[in-house]
Fold:
Amino acid sequence: MSLWRLEWLRLVRTRRLVALLAVYGLFGLVGPISVRYLPEIIRRFGGVEVVLPPATAADGMAGYVKNAVQLGLPVLVLVAAAALAFDAQRDSAVFLRTRVAALWRVVVPKVVVNAAAGWGRSLSARRRPGTKRRSC
Structure:
């Protein structure tokens, strides 16, 4: 088994990939719903009358992108850091270091597989061409 396949299996079997997908899936569902019902939420809990323009699909997408960047990036960093901490488990560290000639052959698959997971995540949070950027 190659180190590339090993790292992919670790990403899937340790549920790190599920953590990434869950975070972005949650933001993808909650973001547009919260934008749609924000006036009712403010009216119910705020006690203050706030006039907001009607919610649009662009507002929901902007909320998703904002949340994905703010809270999803730390999750991605934690997943990548956990992958690179292979020396924390003595048995796997001894196994890898005695069978691989150079350390970069161990580190490169870990970095590339986690970068690919992050890249796939960033595709979902990217602004579509031709849409206006809105400030909140």
